[in-house]
Design goal:
The protein has 703 residues and is α+β, with helices and mostly antiparallel strands. The protein folds into five domains: 222 residues, Ribosomal Protein S5, domain 2 (2-Layer Sandwich), CATH 3.30.230; 71 residues, Polyribonucleotide nucleotidyltransferase, RNA-binding domain (Arc Repressor Mutant, subunit A, Orthogonal Bundle), CATH 1.10.10.400; 214 residues, GHMP Kinase, N-terminal domain (Ribosomal Protein S5, domain 2), CATH 3.30.230.70; 63 residues, Ribosomal Protein S8, Chain: A, domain 1 (2-Layer Sandwich), CATH 3.30.1370; 66 residues, OB fold (Dihydrolipoamide Acetyltransferase, E2P). It has 16 helices and 29 strands. The strands form six sheets. The chain has an eight-stranded antiparallel beta sheet with strand order 8-7-9-10-21-20-18-19, sandwiched between helices. Strands 1-2-3-4-6-5 form a six-stranded mixed beta sheet. A five-stranded mixed beta sheet has the order 11-12-13-17-16. The longest helix is centred in the middle third of the chain and has 23 residues. The C terminus is likely disordered. It catalyses: RNA(n+1) + phosphate = RNA(n) + a ribonucleoside 5'-diphosphate.
């Protein structure tokens, strides 16, 4: 019934197995990939023909994690998987980015790649397994995919690179880098690093590229046995050479003139006018879709040719110059921290909010539930590019850009015990013309420091581009939107003056070489140092203390055995403290208590209350208390929080007392001295001995 093909190798100390022919046989390509005990089913399906009038490649990648893979039942009311998690979205992008450039030119059929995690051993992250499986499924499917690709995770510790580190090893590593590519070169890089040098980062990329070559060979071996017949690509319905020539003749000069316009909106208006003229003039000879496709190619040829020929770019810069920068902080009066970072026509308004541990994000992952105290949310409203568009929940791009900025900042955050705040940063991109994610990195660094968060060092980011032709190449610093759109590379590098903290690279051609990456990293370092210098004009380090509108968090420690006393039965005591003082209180299992309030007086009141609860009464020490009950033989006084003691009638006053109510009444505030403890540990108190020490007579006179 089944014709199963199976290939396996030892890779990074674990067995990697590819299997096809048993599961999901109606898909164009389906491969079950197992690494360790982590298993992912990857499928690839494409429509038999493109939809009429489509002028782009409709590729969708869906990575999904099933709770049963880790022996869990999903949380929530419905008890089933719902909308994609942040990780599922990020891994979907991770798979999409290296495979998208490798589909044949002109292929417009709707294509879907689905990667489903079926088993997770909680050691080997399924993302690398899914990338390998997606590549294998496409390679055997017959779909015109110019792969295969492979991917690897690289760690770095004690000067040594680690291939495919486990989850625990990643936690101890100075680097978490994912690299994907072909036999010829690298296509995609995603990483977080602890201020590593450019040399170490480049070495990690090449280490990963070298070590995933056996996986590419394994996929080829599988394809030689199991691949389906390759699809035939239809020939273009028009004479491309003739259309190119007619476009050059009709609007070539107008497009060249448009790309000398330095202002983005003006340039777009002139390009739009040239395209409209081409559509009108050539409508009788060619269809609109063909004209539109070749017009884009004309734009690319003109922009790329000008850069390689003259070394000058659209806005007049050379290949290394960074656009003018303006950095401002403290621009929102009520925000805890705020910054406006402007670089050319790209601008990000970044706002920091400080919260308590009650504000931490609870994440329910396959690996288990954990809390995150640093959140960075990136928003890209349509007005930022001068458009009217749909507003809604964040898309894949927004989630991906936010996570890149998060990775760039995360290694520089202070330890939680040194700065016990939950941090939420929101970046509103208010203008965009190239690399808003790197503007977010710069703005986040400034905003956090404006809020008083003591970053180890400021962080900046820069996006690099590439124009590569057969006769040469040029690496571009601080790329514009058009240079990203019509160029061959988007290479983002973030870091400090010491080293790199995040690196992300996407290639639109089949691969790039080590030489190009080395040049790009060196050029990016120069640009990053320049940007850090411009940022320092606004703020060189974190402000002293947090903003006056932010909560003040005070940390105290109490004995573990006293936690129950502070919380009280059913939380009665801690609720009373919160209600009476207005402070927020968090208690950890180790006895760490965090008290927070915007008003320091509220915080101090709560702290004194807690200290009173956990304090032990000391002999011969005078306390202020409250009479809570009057009986014939004395008065019970509440002191040290909820602790009570008895003032015997003989200890009420220096002279003989006939009736307790002659001296005190319920609700009176009195000073008492601890004079002993009875056999049951109950406290004996005295008001008389306080009177003797002060020379006062507090006896209440009978009327």
């Amino acid at each position: 019934m089944f014709t199963v093909h199976r290939k396996e190798i030892e890779w990074g100390g674990r067995k990697l197995v590819l299997e096809t022919g048993k599961i999901a046989r109606q898909a164009n390509g389906a491969v079950l990939v197992t690494y360790g005990d982590t298993t992912v089913l990857c499928t690839a399906v494409a429509a038999k023909a493109p939809k009429p009038g489509i002028d782009f490649f409709p590729l969708t990648v869906n990575y999904q994690e099933k709770a049963f893979a880790a022996g869990k039942i999903p949380g929530g009311f419905f008890k089933r998987e719902g909308r994609p998690t942040e990780k599922e979205t990020l891994v979907s992008r991770l798979i999409d980015r290296p495979i998208r450039p490798l589909f044949a030119d002109g292929f417009r059929n709707e294509t879907q790649v689905v990667c489903t995690v079926l088993s997770h051993d909680l050691e080997n992250d399924p993302d690398i397994v899914a990338m390998v499986g997606a590549s294998a499924a496409l390679t055997i499917s017959g779909i015109p995919f110019l792969g295969p690709i492979a991917a690897a995770r690289v760690g770095y510790k004690n000067g040594q690179y680690i291939l495919n580190p486990t989850r625990d090893e990643v936690g101890d590593s100075d680097l978490d880098l994912v690299v994907a590519g072909t036999v010829e070169g690298v296509l995609m890089v995603e990483s977080e690093a602890k201020e590593l040098t450019e040399e170490v980062m480049l070495g990690a990329v090449m280490f990963g590229h070298t070590n995933f070559q056996p996986v590419i060979n394994l996929i080829i071996d599988l394809a030689e046995e199991a691949a389906k017949e390759p699809w035939d690509l239809p020939e273009p319905a028009y004479d491309r050479k003739a259309l190119k020539a007619r476009l050059r003749e009709t609007v070539g000069a107008a497009v060249e003139a448009a790309y000398t316009e330095t202002v983005k909106q003006s340039r777009y208006e002139k390009v739009g006018a040239a395209k409209a003229k081409a559509l009108e003039t050539l409508a009788e000879e060619f269809d609109a879709q063909s004209i539109g496709f070749e017009f884009k190619e004309l734009e690319a040829d003109i922009l790329r040719g000008a850069v390689l020929k003259t070394g000058r770019r659209i806005d007049g810069r050379d290949t290394k110059t960074v656009r003018p920068i303006v950095s401002e902080v403290g621009i929102l009066p009520r925000a805890h921290g705020s910054a406006l970072f402007t670089r050319g026509e790209t601008q990000a308004l970044v706002v920091t909010t400080l919260g308590t541990s009650q504000d931490e994000q609870i994440i329910d992952a396959l690996e288990g539930e954990y809390r995150e105290h640093f959140m960075l949310h990136y928003n890209f409203p349509p007005y930022s590019v001068g458009e009217a568009g749909r507003m809604g929940s964040p898309g894949r791009r927004e989630i991906g850009h936010g996570k890149l900025a998060w990775r760039a900042i995360h290694p520089l955050l202070p330890k939680k015990e040194d700065f016990p705040y939950t941090l939420r940063v929101v970046s509103e991109v208010t203008e965009s013309n190239g690399s808003s994610s790197m503007a977010t990195v710069c703005g986040t660094s400034l905003s956090l420091m404006d809020a008083g968060a003591p970053l180890i060092r400021p962080v900046a980011g820069i996006a690099m581009g590439l124009i590569k032709e057969d006769h040469g190449f040029a690496v571009l610093s601080d790329i514009l939107g058009d240079e990203d759109h019509l160029g061959d590379m988007d290479f983002k590098v973030a870091g400090t003056e010491v080293g790199v903290t995040a690196l992300q690279m996407d290639i639109k051609i089949t691969s790039i070489t080590e030489e190009i990456m080395k040049i790009a990293l060196g050029q990016a370092k120069d640009g990053r140092l320049h940007i850090l210098g411009e940022m320092s004009k606004a703020l060189t380090g974190a402000r002293e203390g947090v903003n006056e509108n932010a909560p003040r968090i005070t940390v105290i420690n109490i004995p573990k055995e006293k936690i129950r006393d502070v919380i009280g039965s059913g939380g009665k005591v801690i609720r009373e403290i919160v209600e009476q003082t207005g402070a927020k209180i968090d208690i950890d299992d180790d006895g760490t208590v965090k008290v927070s309030a915007v008003d320091q007086k509220k915080s101090d009141a709560a702290i004194e209350w807690i200290k009173g609860i956990v304090a032990e009464p000391e002999m011969n020490v005078v306390y202020t208390g409250k009479v809570v009950k009057v009986v014939d033989f004395g008065a019970f006084v509440n002191f040290l929080g909820s602790r009570d003691g008895l003032v015997h009638i003989s200890e009420l006053a220096q002279q003989r007392v006939g009736k307790v109510s002659d001296v005190v009444s319920q609700g009176d505030s009195v000073k008492v001295k601890v004079i002993g403890f009875d056999d049951r540990g109950k406290v004996k108190l005295s008001m008389k001995q306080v009177d003797q020490a002060t020379g006062e007579d507090l006896t209440k006179k009978a009327e």
